[in-house]
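Exam review. A common question shows you a sequence with its structure tokens and asks you to describe the fold in words. Practice with the pair below. Do the first one on your own.
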Amino acid sequence: MKKKERAKVIYARLSQRYPRPEPALTWSTPWELLVATALSAQCTDERVNKVTPVFFSQWPTIKDAAEADVTDIENVVHSTGFFRNKAKNIKAAAQRIMTEYDGEVPQTMAELITLGGVARKTASIVLSNAFGVNEGIAVDTHVKRLAFRLGLTTKTAPIPIEKDLMPLFPQEQWGDINHYLVFFGREICPARTPKCDICELNDICPKKGVK
């Protein structure tokens, strides 16, 4: 089976499994999603969802975060790991949004990746979920692992993987395929013990790297 055909089957089957894909992160505004996604790096969504209510109770607006003491931010986000970088980047992103984008989270990839700590993955997640705009496919550890196992890429770095995936799926599917692969990676195809015996994709999966 060719890659594009396999990708079509993968999307069809996973869309049946996850009919209403949404981020596991809790958010209500583009800024809240941006902060939550930034904090989720090397951290569980469950932990982030415990931290963000505290964060937004202290700094409800982008302006508040821009004016916050970075040490205070560090104290709040400490449990998410890499807290110094995350705090510095969140404050820097808030400051740039206030000075360059009139206090509104920008709605393009080119603008979002100018914000502190925002790379293509975070930008893609914010664009697709908060604005309904698909400019890329967010590649996290789950997408990276499944894209390789399913034979959709041989690359190992996020941007080359994304470039391999984008032609395989129609652009309107880019946001959803990220959700599908993340959820499926957590539930059925984890790193060490993939559940091939109950996997909906078992018959089409080349099982690259699976012992």
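Now try the second one, then compare your answer with the model answer below.
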Amino acid sequence: MTRLLHISASPRGGASESLGLAASFLESYRDAHPDAAIEHFDLWDGTLPEFGPAAATAKMDVFAGADPSGEEASAWRAALATFARFDAADRYLFTVPMWNAGVPYILKQFIDVVSQPGAVFAFDPVEGYRGLLHGKKAAIIYTGAVWGPGRGPAFGSDFQQPFFEDWLRWTGITDIESVGFHPNLATDDADASRERARAAVREVAQRI
């Protein structure tokens, strides 16, 4: 059975453009893949563990070939449990609003929690990093209301898509399709732009 995990990084609920587009994607995905299992991981639901001093110490212990203990072991188990939930899927939908030219901090927290040695990556002191997630596909919906393709520097910069897709490729996930909805609120017909984005996400959902 194909398993799709929708990882959402917007806290805005029904007001969220990215979640609205995700609903269109998932409707089309269900039509195309009626036997697929679909799960939603709302990064704001309180289940994402922090990655603080104990977890960072545990990670360095593992790098050094040691087993974490005590508080560090508990933090490490929480990180690996989150990774296991992530790794159980073979298809992903990420909904990623733009915050301050980049991704929401909760998504960066998710990345820091799951990006662990022996889970997301292996490391060789000569060869460097090697991603361990293979045979998976990802669809990404990017949204934002100020920056957009072709706009000048006064509208900001895009560290959203380059950062996130670089991380995905680093993990070994290279089959990536993305749709962006970045209307210029001063000049665009936002409704028409939104409909174009909805059509695009439906097409991606048919293919992934």
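Model answer, second protein: The longest strand covers residues 91-97. DSSP finds six helices and seven strands in the chain. Full marks require stating both points clearly.
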